[in-house]
Amino acid sequence: MIKGPRDSFRFIIGSQYFLYFGIMGISLPYFNLYCYHLDFTGFQIGLLSALRTVMIVLFPLFWGALADRFQIRRPIYILCNFVSTGIWAFYLYTTDFWLMLVITIFYGIFYAPIISFLEAFTMDVLGKEKKSYGKLRAWGSISFIVIVIVLGRIIDIFSIEIIIAVILAGSLLQAFISVRIPDVVISKKESFTPKAKVLLKRRLSVFLFCAFLMLVSHGTYYAFFSIHLDSLGYGKTFIGITWAMASMAEILVMIKSDKIFKRFSLENVLVFSFMIATLRWLILFFVKSPVLILISQVFHAITYGAFHIASILYIDLLTPDEAKTLGQAANNAVTYGLGMTVGFLFNGYLYESMGSFNLFIISSLIALSGGVIFKLGSKLA
């Protein structure tokens, strides 16, 4: 139960989304580029990226269980906001890789649960109006787009080092606003163990493996795309525009997703997503043209937007009622957890010897393999 006026809480929730994804609009495109300018190796950059991903997979489960067990979601949310902000401040005082590695680990422990807790608060605040979730979540997407464009220009004027201080300022503002988050009484849930054997179903196993390959193929993009553009001589403003282009395309697909899935089957959307990912990485392997690079970013609508939604619906379709939570958890762990981690480490290890162009052709082959295996596996199942 929510204590307080829901309208004012909507404003607070919207501001939290705006700040959270605004900070992401700084860190995702520019933090690895910052590390690159510190002369970190490709493997070191990949390792830092992989660690952030591992933290995001593991620690929301820990903090979420703690919050539900003792009904302390709000105190934990506020704690994680302030502690993660304090830990981030240490980046201001070092450029040593090993110290940054330690900071990244401890930062991830407290930063990881923020978005999952925020989503839970949003559902509580909306109550019976949960279908209006998109109107609140849109503030995050708008913020991401604005930040990546504006900050790119600011970095061009000043330097890449400014991102550490800007992220700190944004995190501190988010932390102070987090104390206004609504107090929610969390209902205690009965313990329940779903049937794990559902994960052994052939269709589900094939899909999870292929989805893993899809996210591995994105490793080059998420870890080295900004560095790739920087090495081609593009400024930070253009880099920001490319990331914003991808985000805008993704939003449009998500808004129209209901019409897409009424017209096309989940399997066809998934196969199409793999093929578009293959084409997207091929373009980045072959071209240096700004126009073609921007066109390739539009494909993010399919390789992330459509694929993500189709994946959730496909898992829901394949799992029985008593194992739907397990199915979604497995999907998240195998793809955005294991897939992204392997992708970051794999690309980081090969970057020095192969360069970003060759990594994109490998990513293309990985995505193609995922699509072919999924198509054949679906027929055999």
Architecture blueprint of SSEs:
Elements: E1 2-3, H1 6-37, H2 42-70, H3 73-88, H4 97-111, H5 114-126, H6 133-157, H7 162-178, E2 183-184, H8 202-217, H9 219-231, H10 236-255, H11 257-263, H12 266-286, H13 290-298, H14 300-318, H15 324-380
Antiparallel strand pairs: 1-2
Helix pairs in contact: 1-5, 1-6, 1-7, 1-9, 2-4, 2-15, 3-4, 3-7, 6-10, 8-14, 8-15, 9-15, 10-13, 10-14, 12-13, 12-14, 12-15, 14-15
Q: Brief description of this entry?
A:
With 381 residues, this protein is mainly α. The protein has helices at residues 6-37, 42-70, 73-88, 97-111, 114-126, 133-157, 162-178, 202-217, 219-231, 236-255, 257-263, 266-286, 290-298, 300-318, 324-380, and strands at residues 2-3, 183-184.
Key phrases:
single chain, 381 residues, mainly alpha, Growth Hormone, Chain: A, 2 domains, two-stranded antiparallel sheet, globular
The assigned CATH architecture of the largest domain is: Up-down Bundle
Shape: globular
Number of helices: 15
Strand coverage percent: under 5%
Structural class: mainly alpha
Number of domains: 2
State the order of secondary-structure elements, H for helix, E for strand. Answer: EHHHHHHHEHHHHHHHH
Strand order of the largest sheet: 1-2
- Provide the helix percentage: over 70%
CATH class of the largest domain: Mainly Alpha
Unreliable segments of 5+ consecutive residues = 188-196
Radius of gyration: 21 Å
Mean pLDDT: 83
The N- and C-terminal alpha carbons lie at a distance of 45 Å
CATH superfamily of the largest domain: MFS general substrate transporter like domains
Here the CATH topology of the largest domain equals Growth Hormone, Chain: A
Number of DSSP-assigned strands: 2
Largest sheet at a glance? 2 strands, antiparallel
